[in-house]
Structures are given as structure tokens and as C-alpha cells.
Specification:
Blueprint lengths: L5 H24 L1 E5 L2 H8 L5 E3 L17 E5 L3 H11 L4 E4 L6 H13 L3 E4 L14 H9 L3 E8 L2 E3 L7 E3 L4 E6 L11 H24 L6
Parallel strand pairs: 1-9, 2-5, 2-6, 3-4, 3-5
Antiparallel strand pairs: 6-9, 7-8
Length: 223
């Protein structure tokens, strides 16, 4: 870990706990609906683990979409990532530190190891720094090495605040309705070539965009 000041170490002890409590309180006020939960469930019923892909923009409420206790998430090595890692740990989700820009190769090896020990892996394929809604290649490499299906996942909210960050991060407001949607599974063959990987990358990107647009449309006001 990088060198942390006393103030930063203190914040690391306080902020994740406060964040987890605040998120749980927020979730208690929200009505949730799930579309196509059978898509990942059929793999879990077969005793298979999956790779879950969702946009960085939709990260906040994802702990409440995951019904299992064997999940692990790829989180960046940046300092902000340490706060996120400690927060998701309080929801029972372990973390692997790395990204496509920092610690990518070692993170891929660790994800393969953790997956083979029986854990689902969650990845924001456009994170941690974007571009927004552009899938990076690491998730395809993981799927190729493990043979695991990639399950796209998204959500939208009836009332939300959109931050002016690189990803336009979404914060559902209290007493809103949140709709989660699972996309169709995507497989990456072991013997796939470079062109095939690019086709799969674009297909995953399109499926994530499609379900995101579908959930957003549910809450658009009719003229």
C-alpha cells in the first residue's frame, strides 16, 4: 500500500463504514425490480461461476443486485479504490486490486486464481478512468482463460442525481424505484484470435449499452 498520512488512515477506518450504513439506509427506501434474474441463476444452479460486467457509472447500487456470498470485484489501485474496496468488503464482496492501466497482468492472474477457487468476478469494463461506456479488453481475456460466461448487468432509477464526472455517475435518490436488468451471457472461446476478441468486445459493449438504454427508457416521461 502507498504511504498514508494519519488523517488518511483515520478516514479509511471511518468512511467505508459510514458509506455502507448510508447505502443500506438508502436501499431500505428504494423499491427494487429485477429483469431476467434467471440468466445468471441457471449457471449458479449448475454450480458454475460467472463474470459480471457493469458500467462504472452504475456501480453504487450493485451490492444489492448480487444474491450470493462468493463474489469478488476488480477495483483500481488508485487511492480512491482503497475506500471502495473496504466499503464493498462490508457487503461481503472481496476485491482484487488492479485495472487495465495499473497492475493489469497481476490482477488478471489473481482473478483467474480466485475464480478457480469458486468465486464470481465483477468488473467495470470501462473503469476506473474511462472512456465512458467503452469496454476494455481485460474482461475478455479473463473469460477466455476461465471459460466463464460474461453476464452484463445494469440498473436505472426513477429519480436520480447525475454527477459531472467522467462517467456521469448515477446516484439514485431516496424513495425512488430501481430496476435491475441482466443481459444475455457472452462466451469467449479459448482458441479465439485477435479479430474474434475484438468482435466479442464490441458485442459485450453493445449488450451493455442496450440493457442500459432499456432500463433508462422505463423512466423517461412520456410526452
Amino acid at each position: 500500500m502507498e504511504r498514508w498520512s494519519f488523517k488518511e488512515r483515520l478516514l479509511l477506518r471511518i468512511v467505508p463504514r459510514c458509506s455502507s450504513w448510508a447505502l443500506r439506509l438508502l436501499a431500505m427506501t428504494i423499491r427494487k425490480e429485477f429483469f431476467f434474474p434467471d440468466r445468471p441463476q441457471r449457471f449458479w444452479d449448475e454450480g458454475r461461476n460467472v463474470i459480471i460486467a457493469f458500467w462504472h457509472q452504475r456501480l453504487l447500487m450493485m451490492p444489492f443486485a448480487y444474491p450470493r456470498s462468493s463474489g469478488c470485484m476488480l477495483i483500481s489501485q488508485h487511492r480512491d479504490g482503497e475506500f471502495i474496496a473496504r466499503t464493498v468488503k462490508l457487503f461481503g464482496v472481496d476485491s482484487i486490486r488492479g485495472s487495465t492501466t495499473r497492475g493489469g497482468f497481476s490482477a488478471l492472474r489473481e482473478m483467474i486464481r480466485v475464480f478457480r477457487k469458486g468465486s464470481d468476478i465483477a468488473i467495470t469494463p470501462d473503469g476506473p478512468q474511462g472512456p465512458k461506456h467503452v469496454v476494455q479488453g481485460g474482461i475478455l481475456q479473463l473469460a477466455r482463460e476461465t471459460g466463464a460466461p460474461i453476464l452484463p448487468l445494469t440498473y436505472s432509477a426513477s429519480r436520480k442525481k447525475i454527477f459531472q464526472s467522467w462517467d456521469q455517475f448515477i446516484f439514485p435518490l431516496p424513495f425512488s424505484k430501481v430496476v435491475y436488468m441482466w443481459g444475455e451471457p457472452l462466451f469467449v472461446p479459448r482458441d479465439i484470435g485477435k479479430e474474434g476478441l475484438e468482435e466479442k468486445r464490441l458485442l459485450l459493449q453493445e449488450r451493455l449499452k442496450q440493457i442500459t438504454e432499456e432500463t433508462d427508457r422505463l423512466f423517461k416521461k412520456k410526452p
